[in-house]
């Protein structure tokens, strides 16, 4: 059957095109589609400028990957109907420039201008996309928040000091330590979407994949890289347990060390002064040593017996009280903690908790994260 002239089909899938969103006049829709197309072009072009500077100017593979990921995510949202709505001949701003463009002579000026250009375009996509393409609007919002942090790294502003990491750490009250579970990336992404801003990748020797095969270093690198990108998108800190080499490879925000791992001083020497170093502690002497070693935070526990630390005697609430009373350093109580246990921990002086199974093995990671944050009385 041949479609009649009034049977408008979607150019991408052959299905009937949806009616204009409620409240959006049909005569307005073409203008909105052209607007979305223009800002998708603008954002993708700006991201390519940032990507090339990360590649050729900085030689930072991790930044290249993060910027390329942003550009490709936008590319998947650049649907044919937006391109087909394009009509440059009737655009009154075609070819317009600004004298300020001639003043961008240094690379950092070019990077800053294009980062701002992308952020502005993403905001337009977010605002106008809500009524036409909610998926595009949500993606634009996510990318915009991730770009704030990426811009600082591209401009080298983060290199001037680690204060921004330590400031964000101070705002974090919930800390996710990952375990070897199926769908790890999806669970972490759901938790980040619910407000989590601090993630540690832990994959100890003897860990296995979801298929039950031994986890190789290549597997660890791929997982850490994927989680690092997720954290960057959400403006979250990403740490690696024990493996300083892995932390450096994915440009993590720091490492977490156990009592049997490399000394914090060695980690600091390798990572530099700007990244975070945390340490597990089980008694006051270890806590005091961590402070003397210049650690940025400590884990306090295990509060309860937990399968992630087999054979480790729980310290209970007594050590939590001692640690939180003695130190202004961020102390994260850890070990079999659930949202139901938070009030008791708060009574003991703890305002921060680290969890593993409470999120990674929850039926809904986002719901579990929100429950923990609500119990803690914190946004993050």
Structural summary, described in words:
With 380 residues, the chain is an alpha/beta fold. It has 2 domains: 29-160, Ferritin (Up-down Bundle), CATH 1.20.1260; 163-376, Aldolase class I (TIM Barrel), CATH 3.20.20.70. Helices cover 50% and strands 9% of the residues. It contains 15 helices and 8 strands. The protein has helices at residues 29-58, 61-77, 80-84, 107-129, 134-155, 163-171, 184-193, 217-233, 244-249, 264-271, 284-292, 316-326, 342-347, 357-360, 365-376, and strands spanning 174-177, 198-201, 237-241, 254-257, 276-281, 297-300, 331-334, 353-355. It has an 8-stranded parallel β-barrel, surrounded by 6 helices. Helix 4 runs antiparallel to helix 5. Residues 1-18 have low confidence and may be disordered.
